Amino acid sequence: MTANASEAHAPRALSSAFPLLQPIAAVPPERGTRLEAHVLQCRLVTPHMRRITLGGPDVAAFLRHAAADQPGAWVKVFVPGGDGRAYTLRRIDRVAATLELDFVLHGDSGHEGPASAWAAQAQPGERIGFAGPRDGGFALPDDARWVMLAGDATALPAIQSIAASLGPEIRLKTYVEVPTAADVQEIRSQAVLRTCWLTGDPAEPGLALQQQLMHRPQPAGPGYIWLAGESGVVRTLRAHFLNDQGLARTRLTAKGYWKHGEADHRDRA
Per residue in 81-104, pLDDT tens? Predict the structure, then answer.
């Protein structure tokens, strides 16, 4: 399930109906500018995760941003008929001028918003809007000897991205709650890596993750925790680490990506 080698990103040939027919900007577009991307490929990674490869002239210009390489960097995606939603850059390929985004498919769970609904049926040739890149909030202290990454399936692309950025001097433990055992994915890192996979209850998403982390002491020495997922669970865990375990605020990043029972949640924590 896990590996301790850095992830190789060999360029892949993509069959695209949208060759680059116009010059690419010499400088990247201003961050926040809404751009257009062409859907090049769609594939099911696991039963509840679909990976969509995007390309086109605007994507090529966007990839000139050095910030796109930051661990956990994200873009806001604007699908037809929906407001903007944040998605982690799962992978970028500057040679092929493409980027990949992973969309969690909520199906009939009651959590599906416009972006998930669009991703479930998206096909090559479609176009969507996007803007960014934005910082994923990963701010590793210089003295950190260990890192904990925790979240549900919506946080998995960011966890994978952050894990791949860590070196062998870091002890890394990841906790990931997924809908089913079939949704487990590989996490690669040069860090000394251990991964705990949890299968969640659709009626109480995030509960398995919350219960697991509430009873785990912090490793010895200075470290850092990054966690994301269901908003209520994230708030509870954030309070636990700060108030009960006395973790300094500079050693914790907590992001509520979505909220149980709301298809259009925006975290304001």
Answer: 878 899 999 999 999 999 999 999
- Contact 249/269 with Cβ under 8 angstroms? no
In this structure, the number of other CB atoms found within 10 A of the CB of residue 111 comes to 20
Which residue reads 């040679």 in tokens? 95
**Whole-structure pTM value:** 0.86
Residue labelled with tokens 């201003």: 30
Q: Which of 121, 46, 106 is nearest to 264 (CA)?
A: 106
Place of tokens 């799962």: 90
Q: Kindly provide the b/e burial profile for residues 194-210, where b requires at least 16 CB atoms within 10 angstroms of the residue's own CB.
A: ebebbebeeeebbbbbb
Give the Cα-Cα-Cα angle 187, 121, 107 (nearest 5 degrees).
Answer: 65
Report d(CA 100, CA 120) in Å as an integer. 15
CA distance 24 to 190: 35
Amino acid at residue number 93 = D
Mapped onto helix, strand or coil, the DSSP state of residue 216 is: coil
Q: What length is written for the chain?
A: 269
